[in-house]
Amino acid sequence: MVAGLALGSVRIPPGHVLEILMGRAEPSPFRTIVLDVRLPRVLLGATVGAGLAVIGTVLQALVRNPLADPFLLGVSSGASVGAVAAIVFGGVFGIGTALATTVTIPAASFVGAMLSLVLVHALARSGGGGFATGRLILAGVAVSYILTALTSLILVTADSADHLKEVLYWTLGGLGSARWDMLALPCATLAVGTALLMALARPLDLLLVGEEGATVLGLDTARFRVAVFVLATLLTGVLVAYSGAIGFVGLMVPHAARMLVGAAHRPLLPVVALMGAVFLVVADLAARTVAAPQDIPVGVLTALTGGPFFLWLLRRRTEGVPA
User: Fold this and answer.
1) How far apart are the C-alpha atoms of 227 and 315, rounded to whole Å?
2) N or C: at which end does the chain have fewer Cβ atoms within 10 angstroms?
3) pTM for this model (two decimals)
4) How far is residue 269's CA from residue 280's CA, in Å, rounded to a whole number?
5) Distances (CA, A) of 8 to 233, 278, 301
């Protein structure tokens, strides 16, 4: 996080950054850059990275598939459609900018994510045979493509071209618009959501032994899945409302964390949250410095790293190696 505050198009010595954070520095352009520009961005990146990693961990346990991720299951794309619709059509219904930022966009993002999850789940269960995780992933990818096309359709049919930059931000994912007044809701949602999921660590562990085993041990798997899916969708909707659709964080980080602490969720979730925060802060730092002063959307970099990782996981599963 100190590196995220020190590096960028303007480089600030790390020692001076620490002085600014401790309130010992005199007012200067460097102080404004650190406190008003970079610090909100770094904190939002840490919050979103932690949240997406926690959501990915939980989804992988719920569907018992290491390829599960809010981006691949279409949840992030659904949240993006809701957010984009709120941006484009907000002015039509007389919704002010401040209200749209604090209420409308997160609410629309959650509704979009929820509808997407319901559709993916229904498609995965269609044709009989009960709950199939393989069909869930395929349905999620298909729905994600459809929702991406719907986002483009909303943009094309919008009356004003002024929304292009904002919509591009939601589709590619980015942290460049972070401000102090944007941090309260995602931080509070992450804290409450992670605490609830920590309390559900034992039922999540039971799902790892299989559907029948969890039922024998007293878990109502159907009801539990629905409740946790709704909680994960709420978290995704809030985070995507402020960061856009940043993919593959929830896919890669849980696997790295399991290599350190194992699969038990009580020790795993805090480690996943920390690693997700670090990963996205580092990715955003790269996005700001690779082509400085141009700011690359961080979602582009996570996709460039997550795509090969997804193919590697898929190859391991194809070869019969446990992921």
Assistant:
1) 32
2) C
3) 0.86
4) 16
5) 33, 17, 16
